[in-house]
Amino acid sequence: MSSTCEKTSSNTKQRASLPVLSKVDVRPRSSRGKWRAAVLITINVLMIIHLIQWLVMGVTVSPIEPSEAMYTIQRGTVNAGAIFFALAILSTLILGRWVCGWGCHIVALQDLCSWLLNRIGLKPREFRSRLLIFVPVIVAFYMFAWPTVVKFFTKPKNEPLIPQFTNHLITTGFWDTFPPVLVAIPFLFVCGFLTVYFLGNKGFCTYACPYGGIFGIAEKAAPGRIRVTDACNSCGHCTAVCTSNVIVHSEVEKYKMVVDPGCMKCMDCVSACPNDALYFGFGKPSMFVETTSSKKYNLSWPEEIGAAIVFGLSYFFIWDVYQLVPMLMALGIACVTTFLAVRLYQIARNRSISFYSWNLRNSSGITTKGWIFIALASIWIGINIHSGWIRYNEIGGATAYENIRVPDELAIAQSDPGTWLTDAEKENVRKGREYFYRSRSTALFTNKEAISKLAWLEFFDGDPNAAIDRLADSASRTSGPTRALNYYYRGAVLNTIGRYSDAIESFDKALAQSPELMVAEQEKGVSLWLLGRREEAMNVWKRASDTNPNLPLAATFLAVASTSAGDTAGASMFQKQADKVTPPDGRYLWMVGLRLRSLGFSEQADRYFLRAIQMEPSLRQRLAAVS
Known about the structure:
The chain has 30 helices and 9 strands. The chain is mainly alpha-helical. Among the domains are: about 25-225, no CATH class; about 300-475, no CATH class. β8 (about 360) and β9 (about 365) form a beta hairpin.
């Protein structure tokens, strides 16, 4: 009896501590909401104008996006995004976390989604987790601090930890650091609508946004806060209108101010207070106040740990899969996956569970709506798991590719580059092809970046025709400098198997994409020479060498070609130029010898072979193969 009474008394006390609005009360509304909506809409319009201005003029101010600050820290590139982020943090240290509420386009999208859901009678409910709340801070550390930490322990002694700053306020590549448009649209859908629908208002801000993680820390030091006068009667209007999931009435009662770092200074609570008891003012920061959480959490500790594991797995399964999904989108997807996994677990364990107004399970078992929820959630989680399988194979293939140390120039100097591979590298070629074939055979989308890697693995494995087709496929799916490089390497491989006319066509395509790619011009000269069009070849090599004097092969080809034409003065001049820029590396010199032999200059090739052996005696055993 005693324990029953204590339990009843405790429950009664809990209920009494919460505000209860009278049935005749009108639902509180904020007069600031329209002003904030207007500001956020204006910001989105300005972003669109910024994009259009770049599309029309081809040059603009660099993206005003906090993620751009990563490049300032890592590379010293001072851009508009870094300046904005620095000013935002400084202002947050004074005024609190106002930038999120009044200046973030993702917050605007979440607010729009929340408003739309409310219009159709669905009120998003906050998903409260003890562990996932730390994700934004962890991600922020990874983005902005971890590269510097790694550099501190790995950099050479004479290299500065902080790079020299350079001006990148103006750019021609406005979209270079953003995902493709076809990815950006689902990104906005996931991070805007789905996170709100499943996790509540500001779900993405709470559990995924790394910038919010930094602002949340700075918020604790801010003297500017929502504060309260003695006129407060704990009516709860403030909490009812708060879109940041802050329990305002409880915090101002306990601490005389809002201490929750999730407060975005939307000012809705101030506007909705019927007694004008709330105001924005300056005083003691929350970091000097001893606080206890007013929130109740949705998960038990075992469920919290399970949710954290699911979140981590989902994030790593999705991030950069097909080399398409950006980090922030992966975080949003991981949030949704975690919620669905938790709810599936609860459906299996609990006798009664609901989602919004839909009863998923009751005392009679799982309802029809429950089975529909299970089916849809299983499909979503299944796609996550499938993405993890693809990501595993993509990483395996990319790692195998990167562990092949044979330089590109040496590989394309002969039709069988596999002779340069060690046993371990041959195993990497085999494994890499298997990984990429598995990912391609089960993929939902094409990983454009993996195609060229697979092409090289096929070339090293003695299948140049497959490599040629693969590089053509990669070129058709890419653009700009990347497409140019695909066409260049395709032409180089075509040269190794004697398809010189096709190679010239491929080099011309490369130069059409990137006229400054003089290595393509250089290799085009090789094709022309081997087709017997020697005067054309020398003109092309001369153009390549004049444009880029640091091309050793172009100058070397001109030197030997001039010798064969009887132009000793020209041969001497070009040889001096070649010697000046040729790297003092045994393998590179051997590669030059191979290239000269392929052009029919055996005597000059032998001299390079001997120079290479002097630098790297182990190359002597290869003499028999080229004799």
